[in-house]
C-alpha cells in the first residue's frame, strides 16, 4: 500500500505489489479492455468493497471505465550503484480534484518523446501536480522487452484514476550500454545479450521496490 500523507510526498506502508503484463488495450472513450483473469488480479476481493465505495453514488461501478480521480505523473531518477545503472522511473498517482479534467484535456495533459523515435505522444495525466491524500494499492508495471517505461501509459493512467499508485522504470536493456545492440553482432552474442537482459528483469523490479520502500518519494509540485 502507498500512503500519501501530504500533497507532494508518498510513503510505502506495505510491500504488497501486483505486476501486470501488457495484455490490455484501449477501446476508445477512456475505456480499456483486458482478459477476465487480469480483472480478478486487478481488483482482488479484499479491495473490491473499497473500490466500489469510491464510485459515485447510485452509479454502477465499471472497472473498465475511467475512474473518478484525475491523474498526476512524475519522473524520478534512481542510481543502482551495485550495477552502475541509472534508471528513469515514472510514477502515476491520484491527483487532487483541483486538476479534474486536466488529465484528459489536450492543452494540459502530459506530452513525452518516444525513445529512438522522432515523435511525441500524450498520456492521460498531468505532470507534477499535487497528489490526493489517502492510502492506495501499489502497482509495478513491467514494460515489454526493448520497449520503455511509458509503453503502457493507457493502462497505468487508467489504474491511477481508480485509486492506485503505479510505478515503472526503463528496464536494463534500455539503460545499460552493454545490453544495447552492437553492429555485426553474431547470433551467439545476441543470445548472450538477451540472456543477460532477461536475467536483469527481476533485479530491476526489486531495485524499484527498494527505492519506493527505503525513502519517501516526492510527487506533485
Gyration radius, in Å? 18 Å
Topology order in helix (H) and strand (E) letters: EEEEEHHEEEEEEEHEHHHE
Low-confidence stretches: 15-29, 33-58
β-strand amount: 25-35%
Mean pLDDT: 79
Terminus-to-terminus distance: 22 Å
Would you write up a description of this structure?
With 221 residues, the chain is an alpha+beta fold. The chain has one domain (2-218). The protein contains six helices and 14 strands. The strands form four sheets. Strands 3-12-13-7-6-10 form a six-stranded mixed beta sheet, sandwiched between helices. It has a four-stranded antiparallel beta sheet with strand order 11-1-2-14. The chain has a two-stranded antiparallel sheet with strand order 4-5. Strand 1 (2-6) and strand 2 (9-12) form a beta hairpin. It starts with a strand and ends with a strand. The model is unreliable at 15-29 and 33-58 (pLDDT under 50).
